[in-house]
Recover the amino acids of this structure.
């Protein structure tokens, strides 16, 4: 009830519009990372790709993303969050068109790096933008909408790949990815910069105007002093304070959470699902792709539940249930491969569905929510950059080593390894992650600094 009241009291149509525009960054992130899974089948003959070339076409996007994450810290600081998102939309359009129109392997690769670069930028700028415009009571739900958009982007790319696979029109698969970027580009002209960034740049009048459009009633006026306080360049928490033990602890916390999101293995499923289903006995390519689509749908549905729960039950409980559930699902999957049960195809489909659902409830959305809210404003964008950089780096490492691990340890050993890491993630959350539900960014900052 109190939550419903908070929703009614806190949101305005303009706020919702700005949040949706920023979540389009998530949709583009999901689409451009996953579109390759279906397109690769057609790219290989078109460009005479060797196995190694194929690996490069898939993973080079992640290298671009690492680069994008690195520069986005300075861009979101210098240009602001909204202009950085504008820049990323343009890069997304260029990348998608380059790949879609490419006739040589070099163009294809360059297009993939450029798309990855844009993905890296939005993975810092979108959640940051959303967290900074959201009222505290709705921040968890709004930032997790960004994760929902990622999952919808992934599902859309699976669907478009599937629909275009009849004609083998791989060019269109990539070009379709430019459409949400054009929509985002246009809409971004109608939303403003975030209040904390404006305060930080000394543009107080503009920041207050923006807050008036973002909030209902007058309750937000109480927060203005706190916002100005943390944004002031002369405030007492100078660099020495910021590198105090407590802040170093927060930096490490975000970094580990971001790494755990990847090393628990989610992208082995997102990028290689048809392959895993092939190992577990799905005999035709189309049945494996259909099973992949089901995984994509489950990913979206479970994320919807998480969006609904985040500001109600809090971050910690979702992370705990999520990581334990991932571990249990992976143990089942590993056992099915180990015992070579006759229902291995059904068991693998159900375990993977459960595993993806638990990721989508916990580590998927909550990582982005916490990364956007635990850092003090002064270091927020830089600290996010470091954590997101590690996220992409470990994503790359896991994707690169997955097939070798399967060869070396077998599917049973590989999934058991990810199960053990998921248990470690559970312990890490239980021991260290604080609850931030319902607190303003300024309150969280003062808890961390004092
Ligand atoms: C992760 C991605 C992953 C996606 C799956 C995101 O939170 O950062 O690496 O592909 O979730 O839904």
């Amino acid at each position: 009830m109190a939550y419903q009241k908070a929703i009614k009291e806190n949101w305005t149509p303009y706020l919702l519009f700005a949040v949706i525009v920023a979540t389009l960054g998530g949709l583009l992130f999901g689409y451009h990372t996953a579109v390759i899974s279906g397109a690769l089948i057609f790219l290989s003959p078109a460009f005479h790709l060797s196995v190694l070339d194929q690996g490069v076409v898939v993973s080079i996007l992640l290298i671009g993303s690492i680069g994008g994450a690195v520069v986005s810290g300075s861009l979101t600081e210098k240009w602001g969050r909204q202009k950085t998102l504008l820049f990323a939309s343009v890069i997304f359009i260029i990348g998608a068109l380059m790949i879609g129109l490419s006739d040589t392997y070099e163009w294809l690769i360059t297009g993939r790096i450029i798309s990855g670069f844009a993905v890296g930028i939005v993975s810092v700028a979108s959640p940051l933008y959303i967290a900074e415009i959201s009222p505290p009571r709705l921040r968890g739900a709004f930032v997790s909408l960004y994760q929902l958009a990622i999952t919808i982007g992934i599902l859309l790319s699976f669907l478009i790949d599937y629909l275009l696979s009849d004609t083998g029109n791989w060019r269109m698969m990539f070009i379709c990815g430019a459409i949400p970027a054009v929509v985002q580009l246009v809409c971004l002209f109608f939303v403003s910069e975030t209040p904390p960034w404006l305060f930080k740049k000394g543009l107080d009048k503009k920041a207050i105007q923006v807050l008036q459009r973002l909030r209902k009633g007058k309750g937000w006026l109480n927060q203005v002093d706190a916002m100005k306080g943390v944004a002031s360049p002369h405030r007492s928490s100078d660099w020495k304070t910021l590198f105090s033990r407590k802040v170093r602890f927060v930096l490490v916390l975000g970094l580990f959470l971001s790494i755990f999101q990847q090393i628990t293995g989610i992208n082995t499923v997102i990028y290689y699902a048809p392959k895993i289903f092939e190992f577990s006995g799905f005999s035709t390519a189309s049945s494996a792709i259909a099973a992949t689509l089901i995984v994509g749908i489950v990913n979206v549905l479970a994320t919807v539940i998480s969006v609904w729960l985040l500001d109600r039950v809090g971050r910690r409980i979702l992370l705990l249930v999520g990581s334990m559930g991932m571990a249990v699902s992976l143990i089942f999957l590993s056992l099915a491969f180990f015992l070579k049960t006759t229902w291995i195809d059904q068991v693998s489909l159900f375990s993977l569905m459960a595993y993806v659902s638990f990721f989508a409830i916990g580590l998927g959305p909550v990582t982005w929510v916490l990364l956007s809210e635990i850092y003090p404003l002064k270091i927020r964008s830089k600290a996010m950059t470091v954590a997101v950089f590690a996220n992409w780096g470990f994503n790359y490492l896991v994707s690169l080593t997955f097939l070798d691990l399967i060869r070396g340890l077998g599917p049973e050993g590989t999934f058991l390894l990810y199960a053990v890491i998921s248990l470690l993630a559970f312990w890490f959350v239980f021991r260290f992650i604080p609850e931030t539900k319902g607190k303003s960014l300024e309150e969280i900052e003062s808890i961390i600094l004092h």
